[in-house]
Specification:
By secondary structure, this protein is mainly beta. It folds into two domains: 60 residues, no CATH class; 136 residues, Jelly Rolls (Sandwich). Helix content is 14%, strand content 36%. The protein has three helices and twelve strands, in the order αααββββββββββββ. Strands 1, 2, 4, 6, 9, 11 and 12 form a seven-stranded antiparallel β-sheet that branches. Strands 3, 5, 7, 8 and 10 form a five-stranded antiparallel β-sheet that branches. Strand 7 and strand 8 form a beta hairpin. The chain is rod-shaped and about 105 Å long.
Length: 233
């Protein structure tokens, strides 16, 4: 009985061959202190395990997806791909989008206006959701900033008389530049009007191009028309 008690006691001391479990626990505790930056014998708050510190020499490879808790809040915080796609400037974040070719031949009746729906995405950089065929009139701003907006409308009167017409820039459904283009087109003569301007857009703002028919004859908006944005700052 005495031998058994002595054997059990010796397993829990550092002075015998029976202390392997005790030594292993000490090694694990030492590793955790290094990984989480916790001082020895210092009480810690369970929800706060300190900062993860990687001390391995050379590169460290994570073989599984690393999921972050949220968007970065300081300069040295890591950022998710989604965050970079939406907010970054420079490579991958230039935010260029150009659409063209009105859907079919768009007729603008007498003394009416038409917001042009587009059917062709010519270029898109910075986000794959700036233009969606489900909302064909809109280019959506995915990163707040200053944008170069460029537009061109081709108009063609369909009668023996000429017509007055114009093009308006709309942001979020309201005209912000009325009559950005003012034109007079001779009878049966296709003519285009274009404009370019700098404008500050907020995230999720959308732009549209509207054509006003200011005359007494119908006109059509033809292929060759386009709308584009490029982020410049």
């Amino acid at each position: 009985m005495t031998d058994n008690l002595q054997l059990q006691t010796s397993r829990l001391t550092d002075s015998s061959d029976g202390n392997l479990i005790d030594d292993s626990l000490a090694d694990i505790e030492h590793c955790l202190r290094i990984i989480f930056g916790i001082a020895a014998d210092t009480p810690i708050n369970p929800p706060d395990y300190g900062m993860l510190t990687i001390v391995a020499s050379g590169n460290v490879t994570v073989d599984v997806p690393l999921v972050l808790a949220g968007d970065p809040a300081s300069n040295l915080h890591a950022a998710t791909k989604a965050y970079v796609d939406v907010t970054a400037t420079g490579s991958g974040g230039n935010y260029k989008c150009r659409v063209s070719n009105p859907v079919g031949v768009q007729t603008v009746p007498v003394s009416s206006s038409l917001i042009i729906p587009w059917e062709t995405l010519d270029v898109e950089d910075g986000s794959t959701a700036q233009w969606d065929s489900a909302a064909p009139t809109k280019i959506v701003c995915k990163s707040a900033g200053d944008y170069l907006i460029n537009a061109k409308a081709d108009a063609n009167p369909k009668s023996s008389s000429g017509c007055d017409w114009g093009a308006n820039l709309l942001i979020n459904g309201s005209a912000v530049i009325d009559n950005a283009v003012g034109m007079y087109t001779s009878a049966y003569v296709k003519q285009f009007g274009s404009f370019a301007l700098l404008y500050t857009l907020a995230g999720n703002d959308y732009i549209e191009l509207e054509v006003d028919n200011l005359s007494g004859t119908a006109i059509t908006v033809d292929a060759g028309s386009f709308l584009s944005i490029v982020k410049v700052s």
